[in-house]
Amino acid sequence: MSWGFLRHLLSGVNKYSTGIGRIWVAVLFVFRLLVYVVAAENIWKYEHDEFECNIQQPGCENVCFDHFFPVSHIRLWALQLIMVSTPSLLVVFHVAYRENREKRHNQKLYKSPGEIDGGLLCTYLISLILKTGFEIVFLVLFYKLYNGFKVPHLVKCDVRPCPNTVDCYISKPTEKMIFLYFLVATSCLCVVLNLGELSYLIFKYCIKCYLKKYIKKHQ
């Protein structure tokens, strides 16, 4: 999979982000996207081929693998990276709308098209809420699909067409579990950063509104 479009998107959004937002972009790009591309993708590359059960019953191994891993960790992680990045497109589109509007009217309508204020502030806050929501949804999804954030060494399967309970072994479980913990930790860090940026922007807006009212009152 080519991740160039995502890197281009994150680079574009970085121009309009706050300091906390730039940290979020750095965490997403360095600690999640690069780790996924460089290391994690190779670890899960042959997960189905390396999944072994102590039985030769035709179809049993495939059914057991599908039962315990309905969705591949790595594909779900890739989907998570895409989903938490796409709300940033809202900010890019809004800035592009402002710039096109200024070109159509051939005059300066905004102090800076990329400055976070007015309608762009609402768009930015919505993107933060969506990113936080996607992070939490995927964390819950990981937990529900795999019965916790763990990769067992051995799983017991009694799903048809297996004639009885069989033992199935997962390849490189310790290595996979380390990367899974890393995934969860970076997701939680991104949630904290998003909530921190959301609180900062709301607080800044409230202070700005209060100062405007205070100045008007004393004029």
UniProtKB/TrEMBL annotation:
Its main location: other. Residues 134-201 form the Connexin cysteine-rich domain. GO terms for biological process: cell-cell signaling. Residues 42-75 form the Connexin N-terminal domain. It comes from the Eukaryota. GO terms for cellular component: connexin complex. The keyword Zinc does not apply. A connexon is composed of a hexamer of connexins. InterPro entries: Connexin, Connexin_CCC, Connexin_CS, Connexin_N, Connexin_N_sf. It is found in: Cell junction, Gap junction; Cell membrane. The keyword Membrane applies. GO terms for molecular function: gap junction channel activity. This is Gap junction protein. The lineage of its organism: Eukaryota, Metazoa, Chordata, Craniata, Vertebrata.
